[in-house]
């Protein structure tokens, strides 16, 4: 392969083509041995336009070949930002634009995420601009997620000029629009303004009820998780250190809030009903906060571990509640477990 790369650096195209013709069987064996990573992939990665042109003409099958990761030479060139090579590969066939590689990404996705603006300018984006990867993200989603204002402005500019129709309010599989992915940092504000000028919106009808008007989910997730965590902790600790319900109201009791609360509840509901009201309300609060935590983390990589830990915590809560049913009532109310 070194001979081809060295020859590609020169200007003698005829010599390069002659070398390719004489080595065609060897080149195909190399591609098979390397997991379909062809010499054209190598040329695209190295940025050798001469070699790309010669291989495209003499070995056109390499143009559409995908390696073990599902990447075509066009994916490689787009990710590297080699605009001239992209133009060369796009001469034929046009369907290369929509070839999906690893994670269902098309070449345009790589160019957008890596900020390769020159590639975007060469790309015929009309039919592929709104194609999604395996997470449901479009080219605009990816550009916003990496905070690339130049790419975002270019895509929205093409949309404004009606060269392409960019869906600025499309949801990904997490239910987020491009505007939902924009945060509050300095770079994000410029992107947010550009998106809103193009008519982008946060969650609309059918979206998650956890989204707030004018706020991205990324901005509200953290404080909501903190609130949910505090409620989980408070309700769980309340059962571990359950209040002792007295048989009658003690108005002079001043040893802490739980003791006063238990005495007050006994006076209003009676001892048996007071205990039931406490356990029912506390359990409801715990379950709602647990469900809220699971909902907020459902699209994170730790969602399964979070679900497992919450399930175990609820299980221990119910075990302790069942234990309290006998120990507390027997000690304070004279009930026996029969």
UniProtKB/TrEMBL annotation:
ANK repeats lie at residues 69-91, 135-156. The chain crosses the membrane at residues 273-294. Coiled coil: none annotated. The keyword ATP-binding does not apply. Pfam families: Ank_2 (PF12796). Gene3D superfamilies: Ankyrin repeat-containing domain. The keyword Transmembrane helix applies. Keywords: ANK repeat, Membrane, Transmembrane, Transmembrane helix. PANTHER family: ANKYRIN REPEAT-CONTAINING PROTEIN BDA1-LIKE, HOMEOBOX PROTEIN WARIAI. This is PGG domain-containing protein. It comes from Corymbia citriodora subsp. variegata. The lineage of its organism: Eukaryota, Viridiplantae, Streptophyta, Embryophyta, Tracheophyta.
């Amino acid at each position: 392969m070194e001979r081809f790369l060295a020859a590609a650096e020169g200007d003698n195209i005829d010599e390069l083509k002659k070398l390719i013709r004489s080595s065609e069987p060897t080149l195909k064996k190399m591609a098979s041995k390397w997991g379909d990573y062809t010499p054209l992939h190598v040329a695209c990665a190295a940025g050798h336009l001469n070699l790309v042109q010669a291989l495209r003409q003499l070995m056109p099958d390499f143009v559409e070949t995908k390696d073990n990761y599902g990447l075509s030479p066009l994916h490689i060139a787009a990710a590297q930002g080699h605009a001239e090579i992209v133009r060369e590969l796009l001469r034929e066939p046009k369907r290369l634009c929509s070839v999906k590689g690893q994670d269902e990404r098309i070449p345009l996705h790589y160019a957008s995420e890596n900020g390769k603006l020159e590639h975007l300018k060469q790309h015929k984006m009309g039919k592929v601009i709104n194609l999604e990867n395996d997470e449901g993200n479009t080219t605009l989603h990816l550009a916003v997620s990496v905070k690339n204002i130049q790419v975002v402005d270019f895509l929205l500019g093409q949309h404004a000029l009606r060269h392409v129709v960019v869906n600025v309010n499309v949801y990904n599989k997490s239910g987020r629009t491009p505007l939902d992915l924009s945060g509050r940092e300095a770079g994000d504000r410029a992107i947010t303004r550009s998106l809103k000028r193009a008519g982008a919106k946060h969650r609309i009808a059918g979206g998650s009820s956890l989204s707030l008007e004018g706020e991205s989910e990324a901005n509200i997730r953290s404080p909501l998780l903190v609130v949910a965590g505090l409620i989980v902790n408070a309700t769980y600790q309340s059962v571990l250190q359950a209040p002792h319900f007295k048989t009658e109201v003690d108005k002079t009791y001043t040893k802490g809030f739980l003791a006063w609360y238990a005495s007050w509840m006994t006076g209003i509901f009676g001892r048996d009903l007071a205990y039931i009201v406490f356990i029912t309300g506390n359990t409801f609060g715990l379950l709602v906060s647990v469900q809220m935590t699971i909902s907020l983390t459902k699209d994170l990589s730790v969602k399964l571990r979070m679900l497992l830990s919450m399930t175990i915590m609820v299980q221990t809560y119910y075990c302790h509640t069942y234990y309290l049913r006998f120990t507390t009532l027997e000690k304070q109310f004279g009930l026996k477990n029969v």
